[in-house]
Amino acid sequence: MLNAVGLKREKRNNMKSKKLIIIVVIALVAVALGSLIFSSIANSNDDPTTTKTTSSTTTTTNKGGSGTTTSTTTTTTTTTTTTTTTTTTTNGNGGNSTTTTTSGNGQGSQDPPDDPVHTHTEVIDPAVGATCEKEGLTEGKHCSDCGTVLVPQEPTDKIPCIEGGWIIDKEATAAEAGSKHTECTMCGKTMSTEVIPQLQLPVSEGLKFQLNADQQSYFVKRIGTCTDTVVVIPSTHEGLPVTGIGTYAFYQCTSITAVIIPNSVKSIGDYAFQDCISLSSIDIPSSVTSMGQYAFQGCKQLASVKISENISAIPNGAFGNCTSLTSVTIPSYVTSIGNFSFSGCTSLSTIEFKGTKEQWSAISLGTK
Ligand SMILES: [Zn+2]
Ligand SMILES: [Zn+2]
């Protein structure tokens, strides 16, 4: 009985432990399944864009004295940043070299890599024209990116001066020649100079001429029918030179304001312009070598007189009573000044003598 009971109990105990093992196995399976389901749910809740893949490879090779270590780490984040880092370290027998390349397109502000095959951007360096003072340059080219000169600019020779138009320095008048010059339009250098001939005013009509004793020349005998206020005496009459102004030729011609005497005239007679009360200026050309007595006496408007440089004597009364005359220049050739030559010249304040002090002292002076 006991044995039977004991067997039953043992059998029951065996049954119990088998049941326990089954329960444990079921429980383990249940836990495993639950874990799988949970994992699946957890994964499905993740934002797909934040999926991360991380791989790491490490290779180490040692050969004798030299060592090569290559380490590659790749981290990919599909959200906003992609970073690739490659580090290669080589230790050779000869020396050390380390190359590090890092590239990324995120918060990184690294420079773009150098373009190994650079294409030049051609820019034309315009030609510069040469002048008479400075060399020019031919057209050239350079790269606007790297500055490399592609076609060098060569110097060009200076060019000759460019002559401009005439520039008047002094206008010619009926009494005097003028002058003009040209300049280079670039550098301003004087290139040519020329004399402008004395103006040939139309000669006065109606003057009365008379042949000189030599039958080879004329002199002005009288004003004749001429009514000009500016009298222009011609240098020739009927093909012969006019060499003189006769005695009383313009005596008391009260309307004359100026007289143009040509270079052909050598002598001015006595009283030739006496009492020409409107005559204001006169040029006695250098051709004149003799002047008569009282030639300009009483010319009350005569303010300036240019006396021929070739006159040696200022005769008696030549400029007497020229009350407007303020200054007189006496040429150095003058060796005598006659009586009353400047008497009554109440405005005369300056007498300039062109000769030396000795020459002045040697002049024979008449009475005032
Ligand atoms: Zn370049
Ligand atoms: Zn020049």
Describe this structure in words.
A hairpin with a 6-residue loop joins strand 11 (about 180-185) and strand 12 (about 190-195). The termini are far apart. About 15% of the residues lie in helices and about 35% in strands. It is an alpha/beta fold. The model is unreliable at about 1-15 and about 25-110 (pLDDT under 50). The protein is built from two helices and 27 strands. Bound molecules: zinc ion (2 copies). The site of one zinc ion has 6 residues, from loops. One zinc ion binds near residues 118, 120, 143, 146 and 148.
List keywords for this structure.
368 residues; alpha/beta; 6-stranded mixed sheet; 6-stranded parallel sheet; 14% helix; elongated; disordered N terminus; binds zinc ion
Write the layout of secondary structure elements.
Layout: H1 2-45, E1 52-63, E2 66-77, E3 82-91, E4 96-104, E5 122-125, E6 136-137, E7 140-143, E8 149-151, E9 155-156, E10 167-170, E11 178-183, E12 190-196, E13 208-211, E14 218-222, E15 230-232, E16 236-237, E17 240-245, E18 258-260, E19 267-268, E20 281-283, E21 290-291, E22 304-306, E23 313-314, E24 327-330, E25 336-337, E26 350-353, H2 357-362, E27 364-365
Bound molecules: zinc ion (2 copies).
One zinc ion binds at residues 132, 161, 184, 186-187, 189.
